[in-house]
Amino acid sequence: MRRLKTSRWIQQFATTILVVGMPLFSFANELVDYQLDAFANKINASNRLRIEKVDVELKNHAEVKAEMTEFGPQYVLRVDPKALTSPELMVPAMTYVVQMAKGPALGYMLLELQYNAERGSKGAQAEIRMLELMYSTNPTSRQIVVGALGLYNLVPELEAQEDKIRSQYQDVVTLIKEAQAETKTRERKMQKKRVAEGVLNSLEAQEQKLNDLILRNDRKGVARMLEAYMPWEMMEPFEKATWKGWIEAIEFPDMKNSEVMVRGVDYSTDKVQRLRMADGSERLGFFSTVLTKNQGSYTRRLRSLSTNRVKNGETSFHATTLLTTQLSRHAGDPRASSFVSFTSAPEVAIGFVGRAQEQGKSGGGILAVRVDKRRMLPNMMSSYQQEIERLVPLIIFPDEVIAYRESAGITKMVMDSFVEEVRLKTGVTLQSRNEDSEKMFKKEGADSFKLLLEKNNGFGRSCSNVFM
User: Fold this and answer.
1) How far apart are CA 110 and CA 73, in angstroms?
2) For 45, phi and psi rounded to 5 degrees?
3) CA within 20 to 30 Å of 279's CA: 94, 112, 366, 459, which one?
C-alpha cells in the first residue's frame, strides 16, 4: 500500500497542533479545506468553481464535472477523504480546472460534450479524454496548483504522476481514430441512402424553391425541406435535439414567446429576398451566409449544411463536431455560417451596416425582427459579449420582419426614428447596452442553454478517466 504523504506545511502545522495534544489529521484536513477554499476563490471570479467533499471513495480520489447554474457553466471539483489527507492526489483534477476555467466558452463546450458522451457518442468521449490528458498536465497551471496546496517538496512524485497520465496519450489517439472511422461509416451510409431514395433530387426539381417557400411564409413546406436536408445521421445528440426544436419552432411559431431584435444588414454578404405583392407592398426574407455564398438554387444550397457543420464545428482534437464550436466560429468569421446575427442594442447594429460601394447607393440597412425565442440562441461562445449577439438559424421569414430601412448612411437620427417605428409596431423599446443589459444577456444565455440541455432527461458526466 502506498505510503500516504502530506506536504511539508501540513506536517509542520500538524506537529504544532500535536504539542497541545490535538488529533493530527483533523487539523491537517482543516488546513487542506482552507487551501481548497482559497483556490476556489482565486478561480471563482464568475462562480466558475464549486468544491464538493464526498464521503465515498472516488476512483481517482478527485474528479471534475461541469454543471449549469444561473450564472453559466460551473465546474464541480469532487474530492474524497483520501484526497484530503494526500492532497497530491488532487493536483491533476485541479490543474484541469485551472485550464478550463479561463473563460465560460470552454464550460459550454464541455457541457455539450458531457451531454453527448452520456448518450453514447464515441467522439465526445474521446474528446473529453484528450481534454483531460492535455489540460491536467499543463505545466503552468500545475505550478499554480502546487503553490495553492504548498506541495513544493513533492515535485518528483508529481512529475511521476504526470508521466503516468501522459502514457495514456496513444490510447486516447486510438479512441479518436475509432470515432473518426465511425463517423465516416455513418456518412457513407447517409449518402448511399440519399442516392437510393432520391428525395433531395426531387426537392431540387420542384418549381417552388426554398426562397419561394420562405417569401410565401410556407412554414410547413420549409420545415419539411429542412428535415430532408439535415444530416441527422451525422449529428451528435445535442445538436440533433437542438435542430429538431428549431424546426418545430419554424413550423409552429409562438409569437407570444418572442424576442424583438435588430440587425445591421450588409449587402456584400446579405442577399435580401424580395416579393412584390399585388397591393404594392413588399415581402422580405433573409438567409444566413451559408445559403447566400454558395451556387445553384437555394434549395440545392441546403446540401452545404452537411459539409458546413463539420468545417465550422469540428473540435480541436478532431474527434467530434459540436454546436458550441459552430457558435464560436460564427463569432470569429460569420461569412460561411448557418446563423443570422442579431442584437438588442441599436448602436451595435449600426456598426454592421454595409458601406455604399457607389455614391448615393445603399450598402445595406437596418432590420428589425420578432422571432420565437425557441429558435433564438444568445451566443455565449462569442468573445464579443458586449455585442449582445443573438443567433437565429438559417432563415428569417417575412412574417417575422417588423421593419426594414435601407439607407446610404445610418445616422443616429435615422436609428432613433427606426427605434420609434419598432416601438409603435411592437410596444418594445430597444435599449442601448449598459451594465445591466449585459448581465441580463449572460443570464438569458445561461437559461437558454440550460433549457436545451434539459430537453432530454439528465446530463452530466464526470471527467476523471485519465487523472491517474
Assistant:
1) 9
2) -60, -30
3) 366
pLDDT tens, residue by residue, 12-70? 333 232 333 333 334 456 667 778 887 877 776 667 889 999 999 999 999 999 999 88
Which long-range CB contacts under 8 A does 7-12 form with residues at least 24 apart? 7/87, 7/88, 7/149, 7/150, 7/151, 7/152, 7/153, 7/154, 8/150, 8/152, 8/153, 9/150, 10/87, 10/150
Label residue 454 by pLDDT band (50, 70, 90).
confident
Whose cell is 488546513? That residue is 31
pLDDT digits 0-9 by tens, 181-198:
999 999 999 999 999 999
**Spans of all domains in the chain:** 8-175, 198-453
Residue 37's CB: how many other CB atoms inside 10 A? 12
Share of the chain above pLDDT 90, in %: 70
C-alpha cell of residue 145: 496548483
- Residue 468 burial by Cβ neighbours in a 10 Å radius (0-12, 13-18, 19+): middle
Max Cα-Cα span within the chain: 96
CB 106 within 8 A of CB 134: no
CA distance 227 to 233: 12
Q: Is 163 helix (H, G, I), strand (E, B) or coil?
A: helix
Give CA–CA dist 140/309, Å, rounded: 34
Residue at grid coordinates 455614391: 359
Reported as a single tens digit per residue, the pLDDT across 103-149 is: 789 999 999 999 999 999 999 999 999 999 999 999 999 999 999 88
Alpha-carbon distance of 56 to 81, in angstroms, equals 8
Q: Strands 49-53, 72-79: parallel, antiparallel or unpaired by DSSP? A: parallel
Written as nine digits, the cell of 25 is 489529521
Identify the burial level of 368 via C-beta atoms within 10 angstroms of its C-beta, where 0-12 means exposed, 13-18 middle and 19 or more buried: buried
Q: Annotate 417-453 with b (16+ C-beta within 10 A) or e (fewer).
A: ebbeebeeeeebebeebeeeeeeebbebbbebbbebb
Q: Tell me the helices (H) and strands (E) count for the chain, helix number first.
A: 19, 12
Q: End-to-end distance of the chain based on CA atoms, in angstroms?
A: 16
**Alpha-carbon span 25 to 87, nearest angstrom:** 12
pLDDT surpassing 90 at residue 408? no
Could you give the C-alpha distances from 327 to 15, 252, 352, in angstroms and in order?
54, 24, 18
Q: At what angle do helices 237-251 and 435-453 cross, to 10 degrees?
A: 110
Task: Locate all alpha helices (DSSP H) within 54-168, ordered by sequence.
Answer: 81-85, 91-100, 104-118, 122-135, 139-149, 155-166
